[in-house]
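For the sake of transparency, this paper describes our internal protein records without simplification. Because each token names a local backbone shape, the row as a whole describes the fold. One such record is reproduced below, unchanged from the form in which we store it.
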Amino acid sequence: MIYIVIPCYNEQEVLHETTRQLSAMLTATSEPTKVLYVDDGSRDTTWDIIRSLSKQYDSVEGVRLAHNVGHQQALWAGMEQALQLGAEAVVSIDADLQDDIAVIPRMISDFRAGDDVVYGVRRERTTDTRFKRWTALAFYRLMNSLGSGTVYNHADFRLLSRRALEALLSYPERNLFLRGIVPMLGFNTRIEYYDRKERFAGESKYPLTKMLNFALDGITSFSIQPLRWIHGIGLCFILVAFGVMIYALTSYVLGRSLPGWTSLLMSVWLVGGVLLVAIGVTGEYIGKIYMEVKRRPRYFIQETTTTARS
């Protein structure tokens, strides 16, 4: 059995159409496949719709989390549940119909041919604004410069074989950035390209603030380069400080020194700003350590469609 895991948060507008299209796609294939919706603590009627769809379609199952844990944790929960249900492979995809579901049969074919990880990668970002395209390009370049093997233009649309999934779920960290963890698994890998569509209905669940937080999590979860940059900047400022001292002493000896509050004020503000940034970056890493050492559970399951039926 192959499971298609779909995290959902307030997706009542798209679930019926998503299920209809997936059901039509699955009917056209000979693979035994099921859809597993993960309700990430939605506040609308998402769970009621999932429960109704599970009764209408034999291929639909659902898991309801007790509270909102975020997209990455909800996806993790769905993959764990699929593994417990005996999944031979798992395909993860969002519920908004922007990722092309016609790629899924190609992913399964690649899996049957021996590939353990198949990435769904968009060809272009024509559906994004110019600002989002520029920031996404800058983010991927930054991640690769920091040593992370993230795949450009790949989100969380991918297939994982059972052994790749077991390897992924063996990672103990709570600060999840799956786009960075999956490339670390190795195994046989393939890329399937597709054209991303406009969102069918509803609103994006990733506004600018969430995107920035997600990018920050990705950077600080996979590299200590920012800490080294702070160290390098500190050394540069020490060199500059020595230069300023030599200049100040020379001017004093030659009698050219003038009382200047401007240079002093600028120096204080500049150094103060750098120190605050350095403390903030260091604090971000300390916060990650704090979240990891508590070892709190990732999620709790409130009910499944099996318990809902009973």
Summary: The beta strands are 2-8, 33-39, 60-65, 89-92, 117-122, 154-161, 189-194, 301-304.
